[in-house]
Amino acid sequence: MTFRRLNKSWGMAKSPKIGEVRFRWTRDIPGKLKNATIGLDPLGWHVSFATEQEIEVVARVGPAVGVDCGVVEPVAYSDGTFAAFPKERVRALERRTRQAARGLARCRKGSNRRKVAKARVAALRARMARVRKHFNHVETARLARAFGVVCLEALRIGNMTATAKGTVEEPGKNVAQKAGLNRSILEIGWYQFHRFLAYKMAAAGGEIRLVSAAHTSTTCSCCGTNDKTNRKSQAVYECAGCGSAMNADTNAAVNILLAGTRPAKAKRPRAASRRASRLEASAQAA
Ligand SMILES: [Zn+2]
Questions:
Q1: Is 249 a catalytic residue?
Q2: 73, 139, 153, 187: which is the annotated catalytic residue?
Q3: What is the pLDDT at residue 16?
Q4: N or C: which end of the chain has fewer CB within 10 A?
């Protein structure tokens, strides 16, 4: 496949099988073209070019930051700031998707109307995914520019998004809280966030450090007291020990930063193996 630029906003791709196709030129294509893919998704046809480019990676010493995938704020930082996740936009799209899904349910099976309704639901879902992806790209690029070290909780998505309902004999704990947490994780696509951040940090000469998620939300980042009851609500952490009050997601982000930047000596291997066995236990339960 070859391609050329027609003008500011259009390009032309030429493929031996399908011939010439005009496409919207949405961004620069740097480096040497390796291959191109044409694909159809619920939003329409897309062409993507994979290129290869030599980049010089210089190890960089930059400030460190802790990132928490919060319950109230989708992404909280240890410096007290929050990522500008387009919550309202995603909520509006969710609402429209629910409406469209209801419309779909009312359609007779095999009808043309149903086909149209189905495409509408799929397009809305694809748009939500695109909003998330855009956010993840922009936010991780910003982190890679601004920081040398980014500390995050090690991913346990498979474990965390597993339903908390349990069984009739053994009902799960904290069903509602867990459902809320799941929503928030899925809302920003935490796995994608990790993936984008990992390669962008590597390209910028920075580093990501994964820390254990244990106790990051219940420990006081000021004095180190670990007490579940200090978390007064989803939003607020109030330490009974030292009296400090802060945003609960920010508190967790600071704990993650502390865990990631602590000297290696302080890391206890025991904690890791304990976690591993717990994971194993929950895997058996599932
Ligand atoms: Zn405290």
A1: yes
A2: 153
A3: 85
A4: C
Which residue type sits at 89? R
Identify residue 13 by its one-letter amino acid code.
A
**What is the mean pLDDT of the segment spanning 103-132?**
94
**Catalytic one among 139, 187, 207, 249?**
249
Let me know if 20 is a catalytic residue: no
> Shortest CA distance to 255 belongs to which of 229, 228, 219?
219
Tell me how far the alpha carbon of residue 250 lies from the centroid of ligand 1, in angstroms: 14
Q: How far apart are CA 171 and CA 184, in angstroms?
A: 23
54 is catalytic: no
- Alpha carbon of 226 to ligand 1 centroid (Å): 8
DSSP string, 106-122: HSPTT-HHHHHHHHHHH
CA of 217 to the centre of ligand 1 (A): 13
Q: What is the pLDDT of residue 108?
A: 94
From the list 68, 73, 187, 207, the catalytic residue is 68
pLDDT-derived band at 39 (thresholds 50, 70, 90) equals confident
pLDDT of residue 157 exceeding 90, the answer is no
| Separation of CA 247 and ligand 1 centre (Å) | 13
In whole angstroms, what separates CA 46 from the centre of its chain? 23
More confident residue, 266 or 158: 158
SS3 per-residue string spanning 122-176: HHHHHHHHHHHHHHHHHHHHHHHHHCCEEEEECCCHHHHCCCCCECCCCECCCHH
Beta bridge partners of 171: 166
Domains and CATH numbers, the chain: 1-54 (no CATH), 59-84+129-285 (3.30.420)
Confidence of residue 48 (pLDDT cuts 50, 70, 90): confident
Read off the pLDDT of residues 171-222 as tens digits, 9 standing for 90 and up.
555 555 555 554 555 556 888 999 999 999 999 999 999 998 888 989 999 9
Distance 278 CA to ligand 1 centre (A): 28
